[in-house]
Write a structure and sequence with these properties.
The chain has a single domain, classed as Deoxyuridine 5'-Triphosphate Nucleotidohydrolase, Chain A (Distorted Sandwich). Helix content is 9%, strand content 34%. The radius of gyration is 17 Å and the shape is globular.
Length: 191
């Protein structure tokens, strides 16, 4: 079941869903979602002479990015065809019986900005900032600013609490994320 604004606010008030810094509910709470804001850090992919990426070998895809940090009033210039990793300003904490889904905002989509490529599901028990797999599929650069509303979370209640909350799973790769992070797909092949 997708949570309504009243149910989202109730779980926030009860401390079952944790969002830090606390959201401005007047601006960020929708009828069945909560808008999250863009952080000031971006992981930009650099051109490389590497002939391929081997998902089993981290050496083939590490050090392909550089971190860019912008100030509050400084824009991040998002060029056409560019793929970057961003993050939400807010840290999100979900209980063991609530999952979430991240969606881009229509206003940005109409400018050609895709907020997540594939990883739209957030598992119950997740804690951390949400990494955004962003792409500009438009024709011109778009200026993005730290603190702007960039995506929305839609919350769903599970039929029962999970026995495998994300942050306590043995193989969880992205625990307590604070910044955009490179892929850790090579860890899928360990053990």
């Amino acid at each position: 079941m997708i949570l309504s604004d009243r149910e989202i606010q109730k779980l926030l008030d009860e401390g079952k869903i944790n969002i830090l810094p606390e959201p401005n509910l007047e601006e960020q709470l929708g009828s069945a979602s909560l808008d999250l804001r863009l952080s000031d850090e971006f992981m930009v992919f650099e051109h490389t002479k590497k002939p391929y990426i081997d998902t089993r070998n981290a050496e083939t895809f590490k050090d392909m990015t550089k971190m860019i940090k912008v100030t509050e009033n400084e824009p991040f210039v998002f060029h056409p065809g560019e793929f970057v990793l961003g993050a939400t300003m807010e840290e999100v904490g979900l209980p063991d019986d609530v999952a979430a889904r991240i969606d881009g905002r229509s206003s940005l989509g109409r400018l050609g900005i895709v907020i997540h490529s594939t990883a739209g599901h957030i598992d119950p028990g997740f804690k951390g900032k949400i990494v955004l797999e962003m792409e500009n599929i438009g024709m011109i650069p778009v200026l993005l600013y730290p603190g702007m509303r960039v995506c929305q979370l839609v919350f769903e209640v599970l039929s029962s609490p999970t026995t495998k909350p994300y942050n306590s799973k043995k193989n969880a790769k992205y625990v307590n994320v604070r910044h955009p992070e490179e892929s850790k797909i090579d860890k899928d092949y360990k053990d």
